């Protein structure tokens, strides 16, 4: 019986946020499909646990908010590979730290309680956001994606083309009750995606974005069931998607199957975002 052809055989990929969630699922899927993957994450210990002994994964600790650190990794890829076929920007944060996460959790709990009681609840975020929180989220979610794209473009050109997929969010497409730094960062990623798609198309480089909603990851579940249920209330499909499902979409976008798609926003959101 003929074995199916691997969709990424001989390809070189970079995946950020590779130590957990959708990034980890993407690394595993890409390797199964024949790629050599440079797995980047800020946590060296977690990377080591996930990928030790996997000859098809090169794990590198990298803070993507540090442009010098990003450039150093891509210089290594230039020396070792001389090309790059696909970049997946999965790294990101929803809040800038524990204090902000606890603040959001409290608001979510009170909002759900008010909804259950049929009472109005109007969370106020804008005047409570300090400069450093806004800066931190934008630095990782937006600047980090920009740094990796900028570093990847020469290698993608050297390969004769390829693909970039940036992680946005449903929060960058619709209004959700949350601090402005997260939707601002993700809406900006969508704008950068569309701009890059136009610029890089002549070089055979496709650039798309993914805008998930309820995905079963640690980042989503850390805020508790109230937050999950609030998100699911927005979705016609009342379940969380698994990271492996999203990885299949990323495989499509990295492979030749998607060679006529660029500048698009794909939203695995259970129907929470219905584009017109």
TrEMBL record:
Recorded GO MF terms: 3-oxoacyl-[acyl-carrier-protein] reductase (NADPH) activity
Record-listed E.C. numbers: 1.1.1.100
Gene3D superfamilies documented for this protein: NAD(P)-binding Rossmann-like Domain (3.40.50.720)
Keywords: Oxidoreductase
One Pfam family this sequence matches: adh_short
Record family assignment: Belongs to the short-chain dehydrogenases/reductases (SDR) family.
Protein name: 3-oxoacyl-[acyl-carrier protein] reductase
